[in-house]
Design brief:
single chain, 8-stranded mixed sheet, 13 helices, about 50% helix
């Protein structure tokens, strides 16, 4: 069977699924407004940031899930310190801080997402980990729940496929509700969010995700499900090229960052930015883009790999291209 015929049949299946759904902008607005509880999987920097913005800006109760109690404790301590700082600087009142704190519920049990209307997964960029989580979410969450991933590079179509029963590939009940909400780091500061739909994602799911992100005070942009999507397809090769310039002696780390900061009016240079993102994260994304496109121009810099080998992954560990 030719690729064209296969694609035609797949498109027909998806069209049939979508045609059964009523869709309009007003319905997506209503669906976003009906998100009465958000679930966030992963209590790391991104997951915690998403949870904080949801409770503070959208006023939505959040169930924060992580398999590590230590990670949850660390995250909650950070949140408490952050709210205390905001109160001391009179950015928010004590009652507002208390209200936000009361909306955030940490747990180690995935089963506690059984009443979530919208779930955002924010775990490390490990494909098998993400697909395993989505397979579980399809079984645990209500049949109307939107299942979103914060992946910065992994195919949304591949993640969505993990929710489809192996013995019934035509069953897109869960897969049609999978979408990507790729928030920018740090989430409480950056306004941008990248919305990516997979091959299975329904229009209603896409629009509901867009509207809910707006409810969180974000400015959404849409991207196709292509390696690296928009943000990292542009950003990561820029960082990678800066690392190559460093490893080949074209310039020092200070010269590279000072020039780009003062020459292009960005808040920080590419090497410092890599430290803040996480050098391990930068490497993981470059690997995905390189492997999935097969294009040599996306080959990760050797020094990028060596930094990760050394455990020098940036600000989060105290050492990267700079010391912290």
């Amino acid at each position: 069977m030719t690729t064209t015929l296969l694609a035609g049949r797949q498109f027909a299946i998806l069209s049939s699924n979508v045609s059964r759904r009523s869709f309009s902008t007003s319905s997506s607005l209503a669906a976003a407004a009906e998100v009465k509880r958000l679930g966030v999987v992963g209590a790391g920097q991104m997951g915690l940031g998403i949870a904080l913005v949801a409770v503070q800006t959208a006023g939505v109760p959040v169930t924060l899930v992580d398999t590590s109690q230590a990670s949850l404790d660390k995250g909650m301590k950070f949140a408490d310190n952050l709210w205390e700082k905001h109160v001391s600087k009179k950015r928010i009142s004590q009652s507002e801080a208390d209200s936000a704190r009361s909306l955030l519920s940490p747990t180690t049990k995935m089963e506690d997402l059984s009443n979530a209307d919208f779930v955002i997964e924010a775990v490390p960029e490990i494909p098998s980990l993400k697909t395993d989580i989505f397979s579980q979410l399809a079984q645990i969450t209500p049949p109307h729940a939107i299942l979103a991933t914060n992946t910065s590079s992994i195919s949304i179509t591949k993640i969505a496929a993990a929710t489809t029963p192996p013995n019934n590939p035509k069953d897109l009940a869960a897969a049609s509700r999978v979408v990507s909400t790729h928030f920018m780091n740090p989430v409480p500061v950056q306004k941008g969010v990248e919305i990516i739909s997979g091959l299975q994602t329904s229009p209603e799911t896409l629009e509901t995700a867009v509207e809910f992100c707006k409810r969180m005070g974000k400015i959404p942009s849409r991207s196709a499900d292509s390696p690296g999507f928009l943000a990292n397809r542009i950003l990561m090769p820029y960082i990678n090229e800066a690392v190559i310039c460093l490893e080949t002696g074209i310039g020092t780390k200070e010269d590279i960052d000072i020039l780009m900061k003062n020459g292009t009016n960005v808040p920080m240079g590419p090497l410092q930015l890599a430290d803040f993102i996480g050098i391990d994260t930068c490497l993981a994304i470059m690997k995905v883009i390189h492997e999935e496109t097969g294009d040599g121009k996306y080959r990760p810099a050797v020094l990028l790999r060596r930094m990760v080998d050394a455990g020098w992954v940036g600000k989060k560990c105290g050492k990267g291209f700079y010391d912290y």
